[in-house]
Design goal:
This protein is mainly β and about 120 residues long. Helices cover about 0% and strands about 50% of the residues. Strands 2, 4, 5, 6, 9, 10 and 11 form a seven-stranded mixed sheet that branches. Strands 1-3-8-7 form a four-stranded antiparallel sheet, with no helix packed on it. A hairpin with a 6-residue loop joins β4 and β5. The relative contact order is 0.32.
């Protein structure tokens, strides 16, 4: 069982930056693909970014490419999302998730952290 806890959300003005953190415990962290997702009430969950266990392959959703950076520290069981040039449409609850590399479905989810970008 893997437990995930996000932190770092908050209120920021448009054009600003935030860094989200996700602390993982349990399981074999370095083997998991770690992802960030976001969701606005009434809308489908949106893929933001993910990173392989080794950090060798990284993917981003189209809406955040060039502005967000995902990274991980396997020694600390942490994954991060650096968010720059934030826009009001980035406002959402951001959640981190973990999956085994051979699966396509994320099995473990954090509770989420609210990010609000004011215009």
């Amino acid at each position: 069982q893997v437990q995930l806890v996000e932190s770092g959300g908050g209120l920021v003005q448009a054009g600003g930056s935030l860094r989200l953190s996700c602390a993982a415990s349990g399981g074999s962290f370095s083997s998991y693909v770690m992802g960030w997702f976001r969701q606005v009430p009434g809308k489908e969950r949106e893929f933001v970014a993910d990173i392989r266990g080794s950090g060798g392959r990284i993917r981003y959703g189209d809406s955040v490419k060039g502005r967000f950076t995902i990274s991980r520290d396997n020694a600390k069981n942490m994954v991060y999302l650096q968010m720059n040039s934030l826009k009001p449409e980035d406002t959402a609850v951001y959640s981190c998730a973990a999956r085994s590399p051979e699966l396509y479905v994320y099995k473990y989810w954090g509770q989420g952290t609210q990010v609000t970008v004011s215009s």
